[in-house]
Structures are given as structure tokens and as C-alpha cells.
Amino acid sequence: MTGAGFGRAVMDFIDEGIILSARAHGENHAVADLFTAAHGRWAGLVHGGQGRRMRPILQAGNEVRAEWKGRLNESLGHFTLELAHAHAGELMQDRLSLAALTAACAIASACLPEREAHPGAFTAMRILIANLDQPEIWPALMARWELGLLAELGFGLTLDRCAATGARENLVYVSPKSACAVSAEAGAPYKDKLLPLPAFLRGAASEPSAQDAIDALTTTGYFIETRILHLASKQLPEARVRILELLREQAA
């Protein structure tokens, strides 16, 4: 609800959200960063956020019902949060899945602009998080989510034809310069400089292997870092680097 008045607008909303992070504010409170369905990435003060009742709610990856209130649109404002799904707690005993949850939240926090709605990315992230208890599924889902995030933020990859020849068959590489697919034949002389393109990442109806998911995450991670994060002089979050290391260790 938005009130009238230049510079005096009051904007309150209720939305679904995913906790991305929370940091201490003062002795008792916290500032929470949420990815909300209809309002995008949004921060707000949580009164008592460091208390015993709120700390478990403010874990990265948890889904919440969030009410935000602020005196001005541009003010920090404050959140009232109600836990909807405690994903962090459910995954606590699975080191790899919990690391994946942390990595996804770190990517969303680093890449998403503040207060800009991206409902497609939100829905895809919710699907990813809901499947983190299925190790045979989530690595490929994470790569697809990151690919969609790139597209939604204006940095989509062209994966349906070869950048060199225009061919639409046997596309197995991605050019790090053009972000376009490259066929096996055209890319053969330069394969050491190209990124992998697993078939599932370009929409082929194939069941991705563990190595396919690793290859896909290598490619999406490269473009997230070079196309999005470098604009703010950022590197790929350590949590995202770590999840790829863990998947490689597991595959080995």
C-alpha cells in the first residue's frame, strides 16, 4: 500500500520470501536480506533478531511470510517474519545439501539488484531449495537456476546455435567471450579455451550425469562472475566456489 505525498510515501507490503542472510544490528536486533516473490531482494530491520526465538528463523534458505513497514519507500524499514518452511534445519544433517543452500543464497544475494522484482528467478529458486534433499537432482537444478538467473538479469547465453558456423547440432562448448554455443567440430582446435556445454543445459531431453552437472555449474559460475559480479568488482561467493569443489570431490 503506497501513500501520497512527494518524498513522504508510506509503502507497506506482505509477501513470501526466502532468507538470504542476516547480520547483527546493535545488541539485540538484526538486518535481514530477503528475496521476496513480488518485491525482489529487500532488506529490513528485525526487532529481536538476535534473540532465541528469531535466530532459527533467520537462517539462510528458510522460507518466511514477511510483512515490511517503512516510513519512506527508500528507508530501511522493518520486517515482521513468520516461518513458513525451515529448510536450513531440515538439511542440517546433510553437509552437501546445506552447502548448496548456502551457495544459492549467496549467489542470489550477490547478483540480485535491490527492490527489483524477479518472480521467475524466485520461483525457480524455491523449486531448487525444495529439492535439495535429492542429491541426484539438485546439482543440475542449480545449474538451470543459475542459467535462468543470468537470462533474467539480461545476460542470457545463446545455446541454440554455433557461434562460428550457425550449426544447431553437436553443440558441446560455450565461448567465454561471446557466451554462445560452439559445435564440437568448430571448437576442436580451441577446446582448451572453451567452456563445457552439457546437453541438458541447452534443453535437450537427456538425463544429466554428475559430471554434466559439474560441467554446467562450471559454465554458469564463470558467466555469473564475469558478466554480473565483475560490474561491482565482486568475485564468485566463497560458498559457491566451495559447492563446486565438494561436488568434484564426491565425483572423484
Instruction: Note the quaternary state here.
Output: single chain
Task: Give the DSSP E fraction (strand runs of 2 or more residues).
Answer: 15-25%
- SS content category: alpha+beta
Order of helices and strands: EEEEEHHHHEEEHEHH
Mean pLDDT: 93
- Count of DSSP helices? 7
Number of domains: 2
From the spread of the alpha carbons, the general shape counts as elongated
Distance between the termini: 53 Å
Question: What's the story with the biggest beta sheet?
Answer: 5 strands, antiparallel
Query: Which parts are unreliable, with pLDDT below 50 for 5 consecutive residues or more?
Result: 1-8
Q: Quick one: how many beta strands? A: 9
Helical content band: 25-40%
With strands numbered from the N-terminus, the spatial order across the biggest sheet is 3-2-1-4-5
The radius of gyration over CA amounts to 20 Å
